[in-house]
Design goal:
317 residues; alpha/beta; Asp/Orn_carbamoylTrfase_sf
Length: 317
Amino acid sequence: MRHLIDTRTLTRDEALLILDTAEDMAATQQREVKKLPTLRGKSVVNLFFEDSTRTRISFEAAAKRLSADVINFSAKGSSVSKGESLKDTAQTLQAIGADGVIIRHPASGAAARLASSGWIDAGVLNAGDGTHEHPTQALLDAFTIRRRLHGEGSRGKGLDGVSVVIVGDIAHSRVARSNLWLLNALGARVSFVAPETLLPFGVRSWPVAIHHSLDTALREEQPDVVMMLRIQSERMHAAYFPNDREYARNWGLDDRRFEGLSDDTLVMHPGPMNRGLEISSRAADSSQSTVLEQVTHGVSVRMAALYLLLSGERIES
């Protein structure tokens, strides 16, 4: 199979191959002419059943810089809104000769279903499925961490011994899940911080330390990286915490907590940010923040994934 569905099944060598290929792609983006002819003649479809400006634009830029033809598909205003199934949509893409499909879907498992269904021959890349996984976000996060800690061109290096604290709405976060599996594969030590109501079922069987107090976690884990997560109100159908003020006071990276971090501690956020809720503007805009770097590196990482999936080399999953 030639798909990238999750990070849970990626080996360390496979993850490093993607990150090292992203280093090569990042180097090409420093040139005056950024486009490569690698995927000329290939058709890549952005199949988005959920809105996401950052992810869609990043994938579109990545595909175009590899010279692929890009087709953007939005569920809104399409036949999907009229009741067309995923199967029928996939068969339509098969009929037009799609070589690669980047799918974002509100249902967990949708990407795996598309990849294993036999409805389409194209390589499938998961751009986020429900609360399951978002593999390229985790890969760009790891790429950003590695570059900050080891410098540019740090090929072959993992993240052995690096302490990463991930804070916030773990229950609804596919980013947290993908980061956990990938960072563990790369040798990092991962901790989750959240109120009990925002932890997913079964999390205590995962290879992760659990904290309910952010202050305790920062003191005990001495993190190299603090990754803040967005509160995903659109996925919440109940009251998971009393109010925004209490959440910010207990689990937000406010100015006081930020000032208590080491000067070398990285501050990350997958975006979009709720400033004043999960992160203060001072922390988000500081030199320790990698928020904009994550966006920049996202293009290089997605170029690497598309290249490995569609140009002949395969990532087995």
